[in-house]
## 1
Amino acid sequence: MNNKQETQSSAPRRGNPLTGILWVVLIVLFLNGFVFPLFSPGRITTTDYGTFIERVDSGLVQEVMIKNGQIFFTARTDKGKTATFRTGAVDDPHLVDRLLDAKSPNENGKIAFTQIVPQENSPILNFILMWILPGMIFFLLWRQAGKSLQARMGGGGNFLSFGNSGARIYADSDVKTTFADVAGQDEAKEALTEIVDFLHSPEKYARIGASLPKGALLVGPPGTGKTLIARAVAGEARVPFFAMSGSEFVQMFVGMGAAKVRDLFKQAGEKAPCIIFIDEIDAIGKRRDTAFGGNDEREQTLNQLLTEMDGFDGRKGVVILAATNRPETLDKALLRPGRFDRRIQMELPDLEGRKAILQVHLAQVKHEAVDLSIVAQATAGSSGAELANIVNEAALRAVRQGRQRVTTSDLEESVETVLAGAQKKHAVLSLDEKRIVAYHEIGHALVAAMQTASAPVHKITIIPRTSGALGYTMQVDEGEQVLLSRENLFNRIATLAGGRSAEELVFKSITTGASNDIEQATKLARAMVTRFGMSDKYDMMGLETVNNAYLGGDNSLTCSSETAAQIDNEVLRIVKEAHEKARGILSGNREILDEAAAYLLQRETITGEEFMRIVRKHTAGA
Ligand code: ADP
Ligand code: MG
Ligand code: ZN
């Protein structure tokens, strides 16, 4: 996602002029009050009041100054010099008389004496000093602290005002992506074309009084192009594109996310017609639940979003798109009419779709004439993102091998790299182990070849992969099979059992090499019983539901625990039956098994064609 966001203060500002002035004022006050008196000229000796009176009476004092409850006086010392003394003022009513009467070394024979009345500040100055100045200092310090905190947290905005987040959300007003960049997904494009048209000419719709759906929710597995198609809508309509991810709204302080939502809609309102896109909306749109107290910040943000969606005029030309791969977790309120009432399904691409996606991405790299159909066939179940990755891996492989153009073999190898991991060049397998792996793989291939309703073998290899696979048999369906029959599924399980069966038959012992086969076979058999109603025992009873369908899908049983135990028995029955079938096929075709395994052991990688030649040689003669 490519959204640009500007925060008002990217770093705490150091040289705020106002704070500078304040500091100067503070320093001056401080120096005035505490420091300057210390630097008064001459050294002052502290004495007691008695000494002072004594000096006065003996006519040695020249000058007296009373200030702030202290008496400063200069007097001749015994050595004939003049020194300054200080003593505390005592409440002495006779002091003035005494000073007037006393003799002095001054020329007029009188002591010069004054009292300095502490100067009262004007009330206004006092008020400023006591109330306003500290207030301002506090305010500025708080703001500074807030700003640096904000900058550190990476959030935008003003710490003091919760009214708006202060974040300037930049609209991308020049989106280059168009529908041409999105291959396949024709239904989604069709649904979105209307929105594009609406953004082009909102008046047309306004004239008749129609308001388009305010929001459309893009739903589908990861990597199917949801983010891509949302950008494409903006590119097609040539309108500004405000894009944010749901998680960007979830902030540290309660209320900040809501403020961001408010801001987003305000800014979008000013730029209408435009598109607001909220990616991964499940981050804020999760169902509000009361059972566990919930998350205050997230709920406030969601509430704000709901309010904004209700609040703005649908005819103005702001369209809200959102994407998620967990639609079932969304709050019902989001999905009701007037909000995200359109739901646009993005599915994993079918054969044609995969070909088209490969073409779109291949157009961006230099390539020779390549046969895409075989790559498309081999990538059943892959998402657009995975296909884009496969093309890129192929280009990287071409570069690695110092070639200028991508070839078909680059693509085929990169399919295997993406699906099974890279080749392990230096894996050390003993010859015995290699023999076992070769028989295991040919076991799979042969069982597949001997069954009618199973996909043809495309490639068999015993070069280990980084994923841990010691070898694999690649089966590629020619067409796209949408409906799978019970026979199809059962044959698949038998094919999966073929590897282990070959080991048993040839080596009379079994290895750990079948663990992945076992896992897959069990999963299939279980699904047949619990979800597809393919067991006689449970008929059409649904025993399991799938949660999170777009993210792998975890199953949860919906039956009693007694039934669960019986399901296990049923699954076991199917797996055993399939294993039996595989063993039967292999022992009936032992010569083919031996010959093909020897051939594979020698070549390490063989094509489906080479394998079928061996098979045909034997079956044609029979
Ligand atoms: P999602 O948001 O659904 O998880 P994205 O839109 O981010 O998926 O897709 C990731 C990448 O996969 C895209 O950038 C694009 O390169 C590629 N891709 C996915 N679907 C398609 C498609 N239908 N056509 C072309 N490229 C696609
Ligand atoms: Mg996305
Ligand atoms: Zn296997």
## 2
Amino acid sequence: MEQRTAELSQALAAVEAQKQELESALRQKEEIQNQLQDELKDAQLLHTISAMLVDENSVGELYQKLVDAATLVMRSDFGSMQRFDEEEGKLQLIAHRGLDESAVEFWQWVHAGRATTCGKALQLGQRVVVPDFEVCEFIEGSADLIAFRQAGVRSAQSTPLLTRNGRLVGMITTHWTRVCQPRERDLQLLDIIARQAADLIERNASAEALRLQSQRLIEADRYKDEFLATLAHELRNPLAPIQNGLALLKIGKSEQVPRVLPMMERQLGHMVRLIDDLLDVSRISRGMITLKRDRVTLKTIVDSAVETSRPMINAAQHKFTVTIPGDNVWLHVDLTRVAQIISNLLNNAAKYTPSGGEIELVGEVTGSTVLVKVRDTGIGIAQTMLPKIFELFTQVDGTAENAQGGLGVGLALARRLAEMHDGSIEVTSPGDKAGSVFTLSLPVDHAVALDRNPGQHPASHPVGNALRVLIIDDNVDAAETLALVLGVLGHTTSVVVDARKAMATALEFEPDVVFLDLGMPHLNGFDLARQMRGEAALNRTYLAALSGWGSDDDRARSLEAGVDRHLTKPVKLNEVEELLAQLVQRR
Ligand code: ADP
């Protein structure tokens, strides 16, 4: 009986152990089932979110959906999404759920020092969770805490939005009205949403950049079309009077010559000035202009500018006065370039002032600065246009009918030249029809201020003796007109338009001087110069190169080829005269 009882209780214990084992297995199965169910729920949630996002086209809506998804996943009461503005170094609110107007305004921009989870996450570059704002060191006593209380927010988490290469592009935040420590699993799901949000912001930023770039290109294209139209118009304008003048001369109306020639000269001068300005601007932008600085007085510069602009001022019958402080203000500048700036200002004053107006040029020294003011009583410039007129190709609307031609290049060029001299140009105008004042500022050269022995200003010398001049240029008109002029001045000339025949002519003609065009077909001027330098019979011949380009590079190439002097086209007659006079004297 005892044995039987022992056997039974053993069997009972075994059944009990088996039962416990079974129960534990059941519990495990239930746990796994629950876990599976949770994961299924997560997967379904993510699926719903993806479907929501795929459907959406507008970026603003997409941001909103991402915030909605985040609040759903985190079971939170509010949510927000911010983009990181790299220039400002701040987060900007771009979408939210549940925040009221004052909260939106209060947290529109958040910097790294703010007492918020997003401010802290921005500072640390990682997720920040605050389960209870009332017991948080960095939030305690802050204005943000007061705002949180007003908005009814008690806890929050902020997760940085990082692109695939780790760049911070924004922040996603969820808020609760109660104390809350989010579950790890929920945070993992949030990370998936954060990744999508980061991609979206990044994609949107590059699309925006692309849009801006294409807008700029479209604008540049429109600008170019407008510019070409103006250019064509401006270049054609002087051609009509020149053509008419030529026709008159052709039919031999000699009594018209005194009237027609100055007109043709003026129009041609105008065209040359336009083209020169354009070339100068392009040279400056390519860094191809170097200043030839010299010691010059303000008076020398102003005289030179006035000489250039006087015909235009006189033609419009303006009253013109010049006041400068004697002849002892010295500058260390490129005379030609600074005179070009001032004459640009004078020409504009003449152009944009109805005839019979007043133009005043005043020079003064304040401290170590020379100020040259050009004041006119003309049409004036609207306040909104003042900062713009120095931009390339800018012309004030509505002044076209007042303009006597122009491309909107002059002031851009003048300002760049002034800056190259460490100076500046400013403009003021009281407005419509009230005139303008342009002020050029340049540094005084104190080092030479006491030097009372300036170098002689070049003046044209009469040519006493005849020289033999060979002109080599494939542009027949340019060559022949130069020959004509030199002939009138008493020199003997010969013209070659085919570079291949130049050597033979040179050896036969034995010129004192050769004017040599550099850009010619078949044989360029550099090679021809080298050949000439190799001929003993021509070793006393002076070689002057004529080139459309006056860059230092071109000059260096000319010299290296054996050229004595590099002249830039169109060569001014007095430059040629002066060169020939020097050669006569040297002979
Ligand atoms: P352009 O004279 O060839 O048009 P500028 O660059 O010299 O080009 O000048 C740009 C614009 O500035 C002009 O088109 C004109 O509208 C305005 N402007 C320049 N100087 C004056 C001035 N003295 N008075 C009124 N407007 C001026």
## 3
Amino acid sequence: MSGWQTRVRKVTPYVPGEQPSDTNVIKLNTNESPYPPAPGVAEALQGQDAGLLRLYPDPEASQLTCAIAKRYGLSPDRVFVGVGSDDVLSISFLTFFEGPEPLLFPDVTYSFYSVWADVYRIPYEKVPLDEDFRIRPEDYIGRPASGIIFANPNAPTGIALALADVERITAANRDKVVIVDEAYVDFGGESAVSLLDRYDNLLVVQTFSKSRSGAGLRIGYAMGSAEMIRCMNDIKFSINSYTMNRPAILAGCAVMDNETYYAGCVRRIVETRERAKKELAALGFVFPDAKTNFILARHEKMPAKEIFTRLREKKIFVRYFGSKRIEEYLRITIGTDAEMDALFAALREILSGAPDGEKHD
Ligand code: PMP
């Protein structure tokens, strides 16, 4: 090779879950909400003047930033909004993790973390979860690092870390930024927002994609000290001033006006999840105690890849990563009760042909 190809920034990209064009499938593979956005969101979009699209949107997305700030009892200068939490996390990596020391994150976690670190040339170290896939807070204390990020609850394990442990990690690392990715916190985790007033090195990132039925909207946000948010804005305004488009800002504000509706959706998803745990256990699956809108499950007899393929043939999509430590696990998003019943029926059929423990002597 001698042409421009030698100068390309080479990366191995993150692979998102499949978005099939066939809408006639049961889609339990990307942790979307099975429930639609609040009716107020469609109303807000219908009332829109398309003529306004000729004008750039507010580069600060102030209306949306203020609505989010109000919800969490923060001043607006402590909130940063972006195009999904992927955008917010990516900007935060670029902002906070300079220098030769490694960024620390768990070995089993959101696989985008290592991709951003690679793109931005941030050295990193994966810290192994314990045997039960739990984060050990002591592993993040007293170690040279440029920063720390973990998801709480973690993904794809679904396991929540107690708030006291999040605080221990944050308190022991005052000289660096600790990011808590709370994409799934509304389904049963304890949010670290309550720690923000005491720790100016803490950044909490959340999203509209899961508990607020808005994956297609692409809105995520970070909450931290005003100084941290200023640093993130300096980076953002050095890349793209207008990340939030007008329809997204409008729809996002309508989402924030309908918190009661979304709390109802979350309640239903949590109820379905708890029922799914019983059904999956009865079918011979084992799994960590999920506090998320998904369950990471392994069958005691049938390989995960085979179950994944057989479900796919039946037009039921779940996520199979095949990555280290979770080769034998499937990540199953919690759908509606009807979707989950279809999943259990399909699994019953698939597993009835399973080899009866022949490999286990
Ligand atoms: N963090 C975690 C842990 C996730 O699982 C996801 C969803 N893939 C995200 C962040 C990003 O979600 P979004 O960009 O839709 O907000």
## 4
Amino acid sequence: MLCLTGISELLTMPRGPRDASDPLGLVTDAALVIDAGRVHWLGPRGDLPRELAGIATQDLGGRVVLPGLVDPHTHLVFAGDRASDFEARCRGETYESIARRGGGIRTTVRATRAASFEALFEGARPRLTSLLEAGVTTVEIKSGYGLDVATELRQLGVIRALGRAGPQRVRATLLFHLMPEAYATDRPAGIAALSELMALAVSEGLADDVDVFCEEGAFAPHEADELLSAARAHGLAIKAHVDQRSATGFASRAAALGARSLEHLEQLDDAGIDAMAAAGTVAVLLPSASLFLGDAARPPVSRLRARGVPMALATDLNPGSSPTFDPWLVATLGCTWYGLTPFEALRGLTAEAARALGLEDGTGSLVAGGPADLCVARGARWQDLLYGLGHRPIAETWIGGQRVVRA
Ligand code: NIG
Ligand code: FE
């Protein structure tokens, strides 16, 4: 057992019914006791039960402690880069025009198909380490840069191997990103082939969830519907990239199918918001992607708030639209660019992000019995977490009661 003290502010980020005036679940001058990788006790230091008074103590020196961050949307297993796309966009080409001439996502698909399992694994490791240094202890990673059976399964295998290698906890998502070129002229046959790929991934235990990119140039709503319905039939949780660049109207259908989360949502309509509210679907917002694409559209945050739709934040770490490793930049942009409150942004990186991944074991919060995954800030006030751009506010990251990063 280990008792952490010297916690100026403990942000517990409660799930479920909570005190609306205290969304962070703030405890000042706190102590937190770790036993066998889990939180054993937490609360005001003065309330530490007498039987715990004699255990080993570590004084953190008067700093903020919060749950380990959860990044619920990344594409961090890929090969190559998209520097030439970036340059082309800076000269005036659009994300869509680059994609139409065979660049964009297809550039990354060519590089990923050519990369070995080891190359993909070794390429992903430093990206996970960067997230770890920012305090991220649980990461969702998507496939979607293979499009063919061999490469998609290789990507998912790499994602599983990254989870086994640790230290972060990893969730694997099978992403249907684009129609494979081989089916360009027979899309129904393509959907059938992708459904077979899904069955294979399921039988090999390689996917926790299924995601689909519903967008002009990717999958049409009826195709996305077919793929997500098949995923439901396999018992997998579903989500979708929807309403990012064009308004597809697919959000309401996806929510009705039981989508656990929907991502991007810059063009989301009222019917979609209502359906998400009714289904309890989490909105995963990706402000660094809009910023990097120079896209002025923003998701309807005030209407999502008014309808009680939970909002999470994610890096969307990928080589094309969001080459960032910084969830804190994302959170600050969530406030300044999307209009989240600081409370919403901090919950969006933690408790709501865990909800977006369906994690019900206390991940994303600090709660007795839950995992002792946490980060220690450099500063003594929670306000300093968001006050900066690229300011690296985290000093230490702990997973399962072990310190894995020390600044
Ligand atoms: O979430 N929108 C689709 N997928 C990614 C972009 C992937 C890429 O451009 O490589 C996204 O923004
Ligand atoms: Fe994405």
